Structures are given as C-alpha cells and as structure tokens.
Amino acid sequence: MKEHRTARRTFLKQAGYGSMAALGAGALPPATLAAVNNTETMKVTKVDSVTFRRGIEIGGGSGGRQGAEWSWIQLHTDNGIVGTGETYAGVPLDTVRAYARRLIGRDPRDIDGIWRSLYFDMAMRNAGGGDMHVLSAINMAQLDILGQASGLPLYRLLGGKTRNSVRVYNTTTDYWAINETKIGPDTMKIVRFLLDRGITGIKIYPFEAAAVAPFTVNQDGYISNQALEQGLKCIREIRDGVGNAIDICVDCWGHFNLTSAQRIAKALEPYNIMYLEDAMLSSNVEAYAQLARETSVPICISETLATRYEYRAFLEQKACDVIMYDVTWCGGVTEAKKIADMADAYMIPTSPHTCGGPLLYICAAHLSMAVPNLLIMESNYWKYTHQYPHFVENAPVPVKGAVTAPELPGIGAGIKPEIFKNGDAIVETVAPV
Description:
The protein is an alpha/beta fold. The chain contains 17 helices and 12 strands.
C-alpha cells in the first residue's frame, strides 16, 4: 500500500503539476520534465507595466513606423527571476492592474491554473479585447520565468523541436516597406530583394485601396470590378516577373462581405496563392464555411480570434484551411499551442501572426519550432532589421529564408537595459499597490 501511494504521488506530480498541465507533460522528454519539476517554489512579489516613450527614433528608412506599438508586463518573483510578457499597446492600465493584483503571492509556474482562473473572470464578463491581451502577456511572462528557472529555452518547454528552422514570409505594407537602397513601395523591387535573401514568401494587401477609397467601396464591404482588377494587377506582376519562385499570401483585413469575398477568391484561383487571409470579419463561421466550400483558394483565419474555444467552430465546420493565431492576442503561448494541437487533429496547418513587438516574434519562432503543423511564419524585414534591435539583442534574422529561436533560457530576447535607463521604457508598478 505504501509503495502504491508513493507511485501515485510521483505520477500526480508529473502528470498534474500546474505548469505541466499547460505544456502537455506527456509530450516532454524525461530530461525536460525533470528540469521543470526540479525548479524551486516561488511567488510573484511585484508586477510592472512597461510602456514606451512616444517619438522614439528608429533608423533605417523613413517609411517604417517609429517607436513601439506594443507594451510589456513584467512579473517579479521572490527568487529574483523576472519574466517579461508582451501584448499590444493601448491596454488600459486599470485592466492590467486588476489582473496583476490576482498574481501576487501565486507561484508563476502554475501556468494552467492561473490561466484558467483569470480566463473564468474574463469569460463571465464577455472576454476579449484588453482582458485577453493582458492574459496573453501574463502567460508569456510565466513561461519566461519557468524557462529561466529550469535553464531551458521556451521551445523545449513546448515539447522540443519538430524542425530545426522556421520558414518565414515577409509582410509588406506601405508603412513596413523594405526602405533599403530607395526601394520604397515598388512591389517587384521588394520581391527581388526578398528572393535575393532566400525569403520565398510575401504577404500583400492588393485590395486594401478598394477598402478605403470612397469611389471603389461602400460601407457594406463591396468591391467594384475596377478595384478587383486593380488588385489583381499586382499579383499578375509578381507571377509574370518571378513565376512561382515566391509564395503569395493575400490579406484583406476583414474588409469585405461574403459576396465580395467570393468574387475575390474566384478571381485569385488562377494564381496559386498560398492563402487568402481575413477576407471577412471572423464573426460569422457559417459565411466562412460557405466561402471555403466554394473556392480552391486556401482560406486563412484569423489573428483576431482568441482561445481554442473560438477556433473550434471554424475547424468543426470546415470553415478554414489555415489557422493563424497571435500569441500576444489569443490567450498566450500555451493557448496558441493548444490551438495548434487542435488544428493538427483536423490536419490543418498553422501560420502565426507576428507583426507586433519583438517578444511576439521571438515567442512565435519558439512555438513554430515545436508544433508539428507549421505552414509558414510571418516576419517583416524593417522590424527585425531596424525596429526590434532598438529594444532587444536576439531578434532572429532569417538565414536562407528561415529563422531559429534563441538557445537561451526562457524567451531569450536579451532585453536591452539601456531602454530603461534612457527613458525609452516607462515602468509603473501595478501590483501590489
């Protein structure tokens, strides 16, 4: 009986430990499991909100955005480890403070337990928006702490490598153009610039003008023949210029209704694009299921969704062919892993959204190295070349069109201490207060 109780306690420690429940203990190698289980008990003692000074000058061309469009949450522990999580800027400080107070005195290694307790409160008040952003950042910071405490890089905590590198595409917009050697927004110059560096995927917004120009679109999401043809010219230019040497992702940013989305998808069919992203808002799964049934173009959905609960219906109703998530938006890194695993059960690949801050980008690289069903990951030349290095040391730079995550404990971003000394980073303690 004593041996039975000892074996049972050992099993429960390995299978039910708070952090392991979130990470999927059964998938972890014994050495990784041991390293995590051997970390010491700790408590969150302080939570800081980190925002960034407006007007930070970022070099490398005039077309890129200045400053930072993200914010950080830092969890301090009684053993001296500080974990940093990221989300988008603009989350009300009162929202951060409300959830930060709930963390004081808790063991940050209890990743799933903390996630569930915070999510319950959010869900009972229509979870989303700033609340989900805060939950995502807290989850990321907890994993950063666990990685530092165990001495393991984040991808090891997520099950280890399924690939040695992560293929990336480049998102190209008018404000995130390459901006090198006076390339500017010239599409073909950008395409050749990317191909010269081994990057064989690009995301473009060929119908964006149709969504904002009064003479081509109305408020109901209509796209005119003229606007449709104007958008197709860009795609023809790429195919005529380099053939299939580069994969094309088309993002509509949710601007269109079902009728226009159907017309866009039909018009794109001859061009063998990688996927059509957010052709409509993600608020109607039935509309997306109809679109997916009617077109051979792969349908991608959507950085705007959060938690496995919202993605479930799209998978069950066969309303998408590619799952996109944002780890600073969907509920965090462990939630993104659960979304990816759920998609894998449907044989659906994933394509993480990363055009936010540097920790999002690095964490997505960690996760992409671990999940079995990666299609391709987003990147942006201007960001990892000019913007991210202002804030962190270790933003991955593509080599032969692929990136690898840092081989350092936790996220391994290498946050630069000088941004706190020179006033670029503004720190405010939100708990305890």
